[in-house]
Every structure is written in C-alpha cells, then in structure tokens.
Amino acid sequence: MAAVAAVLFAIGYLVSNTLSNLEARRIASGFGFLGREAGFEIGESFFMRYGAADSYLRALVVGLVNTLMVAAIGIVLATGLGTAIGLFRLSGNFLLRTLSTAYVEFVRNVPLLVQLFFWYAVITEVLPQAREALEPLPGVFLSNRGIFFPTFSSVPVLQGFNFSGGVAISPEFAALLLGLATYTAGFIAEIVRAGVLSIRRGQWEAAQAVGLTRPQTLRHVVLPQALRVVVPPMTSQYLDLTKNSSLAVAIGYPDLVSIANTAINQTGQAIEGIAIIMAVYLTISLSISGFMNWYNARIVFR
After folding, report:
1. How far apart are CA 75 and CA 182, in angstroms?
2. Which among 122, 159, 295, 300 has the fewest CB atoms less than 10 Å away?
3. What value does the mean pLDDT take over residues 176-190?
C-alpha cells in the first residue's frame, strides 16, 4: 500500500507541477486544439479527403490511416518474404542457402534508419524521371516520382512531368514499406528457421514413408507444428514493425508521428500531442498482440 501511495503521490505531483508551469508560461493545455483549423497540407492520404482548412483532429486521423496502411502491408510482405528466406536457409542448394544467410546477416546488422535512407535514395536518385520511366510490367511504371499501377478503370498515362490515372505510390511510402518489410523479414526468417528445426526428424521420415514429397511434408506436416514455436516471437516482430514505422518522419512520409509533430510545432501543446501518439501506438500494439494471442490459442493450439 505504501508503494502504491508513493506512486500516486508522484503522479499527482508531476501533473500539478506540469499544469503550474504551463499556466506560468501561458501555454494552453487540453485537447481543445483538435477542433481548430490545421492550416497545413498533407502530401499523401488514403481513403480520406483532407485540406488545410480541416481540423487538427482530421489531420491526425489521416496520419493514423497512413500509419496503419504501411504497417498492415508491411506485415504481409515481411511475413511472406521472411518465411521464404527462412525456408531457403534450410535448402539443400548451396547457392540459395548462402544468399539467404547473407541477406539475414546483412539486414539484421544494418540500422533500419540507414536502410530507409538507402531505399529512399534508390527511388529518388537511381530511378529515371517520369518521361523515361521503367515499365517492368504492362501498365506498371517506376520513376523517381513513385510507382504507378493500373486499376480496373484507368491506366497510368504520362501527362507533363508526371503520370495521372491508376494508383500511385509515393517515393516516401515505397521507401518506408521496402525498408520495414525487408528489415523485419530478416528476423522473421530466423524465427521460421528455428520453428522448422524444432520439429523432430522422425516427423519428416514418417511423412516421407507414406509417400509425401518434401514440399508436401513441409506444408502439411512440419509447418503446422512449427507454428506453435513461430507465432509468439512473430507477434513481437509485428509489433516492432508497427512501432518502427514512426521512423517515417526521417524520409518525409506523413505518418501519425510526422503530422503530430507538425501540430505540436504550430500549437505548442507538446504534452497533449505526445500523449496522443503514445495512446495510439499503445492501442495498436495491444490490438495486434490480442489478435495474435487469440490466433495462437484458437487456431494453432486447437
């Protein structure tokens, strides 16, 4: 009880002292600023229309959606790439095994921020201008203005110095997504490899004895059992990828942190802005953790 009382006293003192300092410096407190006009544009938004005349609240929601988009797509890409590389590390092919090992050792030992700068430089400096865009697939264009994909209703068409129509992915989004996916895939690869190695050799031999091929054994016998080992640490990687998306501010992608920083600089309400960021990331992390725990209990251990 004494420890609880001490903690509550410390929290109360900090809150009281903070409010007193804010009042002394005539800095507004509270979340009333969320209803005010933001006054700044956002370069990229998904599923939502936004203008400078909209409120700070809408701007933060746009940032949240941008964060969720890159995190969700990044998790899918990292899982697929990491699983493939983890299995390649167990391959009997020397070249495939060596290249996969080199990939894992490289991406895990180079800071993520450096990798984000690398991918951003590749897209903005190495890729050609829009007029000379690469077309690896029909209707898909790669340029320093971004990546453009066709849709069912329209195809990207060059107009002036950029493309119009189709779906456009900005250089910032593409660099952030590539960096997060390739970096996290290196850790997921090791998790998958460890999960497969945890299955006893007898399982492989029994499956092959009844006529299953190696790919069939891997798919129907080994991987379903390996999930019990893989899912818990995989959850941590999903959480890390989501939280690492906050590095988007370094390459100019308008995620939640970037937009919140702009709002803080304009309003001066740093405590409220940081509190919003913390609350949002806490909610997202708990949601991911809760879903993965449910999946682990209901699907893997059923």
Report:
1. 10
2. 159
3. 95
Query: What tokens does 245 get?
Result: 């998306």
Cβ(42)–Cβ(261) under 8 Å? no
Burial 249-285 (b: 16+ CB within 10 A, else e): bbbebbbbbbbbbbbbeebbbeebbeebbeebbeebb
The C-alpha atoms of residue 183 and residue 180 are separated, in whole angstroms, by 5
Burial class (CB in 10 A: 0-12, 13-18, 19+), 163: buried
Three-class secondary structure of residue 3 per DSSP: helix
What is the pLDDT confidence band of residue 301, given thresholds at 50, 70 and 90?
A: low
Mapped onto helix, strand or coil, the DSSP state of residue 239 is: helix
| Distance between CA atoms of residues 108 and 131, nearest Å | 36
Q: Are 285 and 243 in contact (CB under 8 A)?
A: yes
Which residue(s) pair with 162 in the sheet? 159
Task: Report CA 244 to chain centroid distance, whole Å.
Answer: 7
Dig out the tokens for 292 from the structure: 């993965």
Q: Count the Cβ atoms, other than its own, within 10 Å of residue 12.
A: 10
Percent of the chain having pLDDT more than 70? 92
What's 55's DSSP letter? B
How many alpha carbons lie under 13 Å from residue 261 in its C-beta half-sphere? 12
Return the closest-CA partner of residue 221 out of 201, 246, 193, 237: 201
Least confident of 80-89, 157-166, 189-198: 157-166
Q: What is the pLDDT of residue 192?
A: 93
* Residue 134, beta-bridge partner list: 142
How many helical (H) and strand (E) elements, i.e. helices and strands, does the chain have? 10, 6
Residue 135, helix vs strand vs coil: strand
